[in-house]
């Protein structure tokens, strides 16, 4: 059975974790960096201690990032970031911060709209999901462990309108990958061929390895 490697292009760095000189605060919003606004607030237990933690999606406010589009008018192209705060009962602790790992919601999608970012907490895991309408979606699944957020899963669906063409599901805990291909050349009715493969990752990927999620496309290389 072929083994497969997951690599990411244009999206990794040594460290994008920018921790405040004081990583303890009385309220979670104290960790929002200067010059940034909160655009979304998500709550959930990320470290399985029974307390509600916070995930903030933030956005820069630089005037220089506003551009005028002939069709859409004035657009705010300030990039977005993420701030994750753990609830310690009578105080809050900064767990992660990246100020510009997500592009603006006002990017040019070409002939289609740009992928829609949705961040959520499900079953204690942090999900970063990109929905791209008729073209499908891709999703990163992170779990908090050893004081960091480790990538434990990756899923992707490629579609043509309502028809699913291909799906990839990678479980980095079991080190297995399932690929399903629609083998019907006419698309409908969908007929899938499934293939399980072993999956190798040279080293664990953490949330702080991702500089730009919009540039992160999984490349599957057979060896």
Task: Give an overview of the whole structure.
The protein starts with a strand and ends with a strand. Residues 1-21 and 218-223 have low confidence and may be disordered. It has one domain (3-222). A 9-stranded mixed beta sheet has the order 9-10-11-12-13-14-15-1-16, with no helix packed on it. Strands 2-8-7-4-3 form a 5-stranded antiparallel beta sheet, with no helix packed on it. The chain has a two-stranded antiparallel sheet with strand order 5-6. Helix content is 0%, strand content 53%. It has no helices and 16 strands. The chain has 223 residues and is mainly beta.
Summary tags:
about 220 residues, mainly beta, nine-stranded mixed β-sheet, five-stranded antiparallel β-sheet, about 55% strand
Give the topology, please.
Layout: E1 3-8, E2 24-25, E3 36-44, E4 53-60, E5 66-69, E6 73-76, E7 80-87, E8 92-102, E9 116-122, E10 125-131, E11 136-145, E12 148-160, E13 163-171, E14 176-182, E15 192-200, E16 218-222
Parallel strand pairs: 1-15
Antiparallel strand pairs: 1-16, 2-8, 3-4, 4-7, 5-6, 7-8, 9-10, 10-11, 11-12, 12-13, 13-14, 14-15
Estimate nothing, just give the exact number of structural domains: 1
Strand content: over 45%
Shape: flat
Low-confidence stretches: 1-21, 218-223
Quick recap:
With 223 residues, the chain is mainly β.
């Amino acid at each position: 059975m072929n083994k497969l490697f997951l690599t990411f292009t244009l999206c990794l760095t040594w460290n994008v974790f920018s921790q405040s000189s004081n990583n303890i605060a009385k309220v979670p919003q104290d960790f929002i960096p200067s010059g940034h606004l909160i655009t979304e607030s998500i709550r959930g237990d990320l470290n399985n201690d029974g307390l509600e933690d916070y995930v903030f999606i933030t956005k820069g406010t630089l005037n220089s990032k506003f551009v005028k589009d002939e069709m859409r008018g004035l657009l705010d192209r300030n990039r977005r970031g993420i701030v994750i705060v753990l609830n310690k009962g009578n105080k809050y602790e900064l767990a992660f911060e990246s100020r510009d790992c997500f592009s603006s919601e006002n990017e040019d999608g070409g002939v289609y709209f740009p992928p829609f970012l949705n961040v959520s907490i499900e079953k204690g895991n942090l999900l970063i999901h990109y929905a791209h309408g008729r073209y499908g979606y891709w999703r990163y699944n992170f779990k908090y462990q050893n004081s960091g957020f480790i990538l434990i899963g990756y899923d992707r669906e490629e579609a043509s309108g309502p028809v699913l063409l291909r799906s990839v599901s990678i479980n980095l805990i079991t080190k297995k990958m399932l690929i399903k291909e629609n083998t019907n050349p006419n698309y409908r009715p969908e007929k899938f061929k499934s293939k399980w493969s072993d999956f190798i990752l040279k080293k664990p990927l953490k949330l702080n390895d991702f500089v730009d999620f919009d540039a992160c496309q999984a490349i599957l290389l057979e060896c």
